[in-house]
Amino acid sequence: MTGLFFMSVFKIHTFTTMDYEQHISTSKLPDVKTTIFTTVGNLARKHHAIDLSQGFPNFKADEKLKSMVNDALIAGHNQYAPMQGFYGLREVISEKIASLHQRTYSPADEVTITVGATQAIFTAITAFINKGDEVIVIKPAYDCYEPAITLNGGIPVYVQLDAPDYKIDWSAFETKITDKTKMVIINTPHNPTCTVLTKSDMDQLEKILKPTNIILLSDEVYEHITFDGQVHESASRFPDLANRSFVCASFGKTFHVTGWKMGYCVAPIELMSEFRKVHQFAVFCVDHPVQRALANYLKHPSHYLDLNNFYQEKRDFFLDGIKSSKFKFKPCQGTYFQLLDYTQISMDKDEVIGKRLITENGIASIPISSFNVENRNDYMLRFCFAKKKETLEQAVEILCKL
User: Fold this and answer.
1) φ/ψ bin of 7: left (φ > 0), alpha (ψ from -120 to 50), beta (otherwise)
2) 72-121 residue pLDDT tens
3) Contacts of 53 (CB under 8 A, 6+ apart)
4) Considering the chain, what is the average pLDDT of its residues?
5) Could you tell me the pLDDT band of residue 17, with boundaries at 50, 70 and 90?
6) Which residues touch 25 (CB under 8 Å, ≥6 apart)?
7) What is the pLDDT of residue 5?
8) Which of 157-188 are b and which e, b meaning 16 or more Cβ less than 10 Å from the residue's Cβ?
9) How far apart are the first and last CA of the chain?
């Protein structure tokens, strides 16, 4: 009787297809599909293609670094790290930035260790972007910026760069600024165009933003990978930019350990205090023994200062190998990617030619249209050269036959 009574009083609801459709119709990211990296990666594995698409090295990390992680594990550093990150690591990051860019960040209040740079970027956007706020995004752009803006009710405002130089027209950029502009996102060295912002670029950006209260989010994950004498012009180097900037970086990119998902963010205390309010409830803290290891590893600057030569050798080997191919290219200025213009091979859309290279030729790359406004076709494919020499040799052989 009791059971029947309750069933008569409370109507039991079971979800129907219509209910699910209603939930989906209110999705915060209705237009987001599977990322191009997952799509291409899955196709490459299916066809056993040489994968130069996603940006991760296929060679081993430094044995010294791995040994330091092991030492930290054995020493018992296996419980929660401080929310802001292990102080010793924050301290050495502050020293590194002061040495390279002449800006001192307080290890206590202005440096936070994050779950990779992507979490740092997401957290900075979440901390400050509200409904209706505009965020300027320079396209082509890495694909994590816009979803974070949209999730927080913000509005991406685009500045599209033109191939093959992908230089920022600062006059056009300035026209995008309105009284609703809350943030600007830059990325240097730039993925996917492989360009580097110059001192002149940063001076112009500083001049444009100076009379505003706009926040700058500077994605600098490839900070230690520039070529041909190019200098990484961090936002930390420019006083007015540094005073309004989140600078996000990645240990994974720097030390060939992308799977560790370790990064950091620096910002003035006024910005960082808000950042940490979100950070503590998103992840609280990150891997403790790895932080201990990195703190020791970073005490030897050669571990990151030698990267330019290391990757330039790989870039030059790759480009020398394809000189006789039909691809056109400008040597990349930074990152471990290279854009190749395929117009002497085909005038098909980059997504079409990219799929064909996987299924018919056995090599995977990323179509640049995936990062452009409205999938604009630049007839460019992005190839990652952070690979073993034998992998690059196989790739060169395929590309020269096209």
Assistant:
1) alpha
2) 999 999 999 999 999 999 999 999 999 999 999 999 999 999 999 999 99
3) 37, 40, 41, 44, 364, 365, 366, 382, 383, 384
4) 94
5) low
6) none
7) 40
8) bebbbebeebebebeebeeebeeebbbbbbbb
9) 78
pLDDT surpassing 70 at residue 8: no
Question: How crowded is residue 402: how many other Cβ atoms within 10 Å of its Cβ?
Answer: 18
pLDDT in tens, 301-351: 999 999 999 999 999 999 999 999 999 999 999 999 999 999 999 999 999
Phi, psi of 137 (to 5 degrees): -120, 125
Check if the beta carbon of residue 340 is closer than 8 Å to that of residue 318: no
Average pLDDT over residues 191-213: 98
Return the structure tokens found at 349.
């859309």
Residue 351 identity = E
Contact, 325 vs 400, CB < 8 A? yes
- Give the type of residue at 114: T
Residues 344 and 264: beta-carbon distance below 8 Å:
no
155-160 and 134-139 as β-strands: parallel, antiparallel, unpaired?
parallel
Given the structure tokens 């990325």, which residue do they identify? 187
Residue among 268, 298, 291 nearest 82 (CA): 291
Query: pLDDT tens, 38-56?
Result: 999 999 999 999 999 989 8
Helix residue ranges per DSSP H, 85-144: 87-101, 116-128
* Domains along the chain with CATH numbers: 36-55+305-400 (3.90.1150.10), 79-299 (3.40.640.10)
Q: Considering only CA atoms, which of 344, 383, 391 is closest in space to residue 364?
A: 383
Other beta carbons less than 10 A from residue 1's beta carbon: 5
383 - beta bridge partners? 338
Query: CA 89: distance to chain centroid?
Result: 21
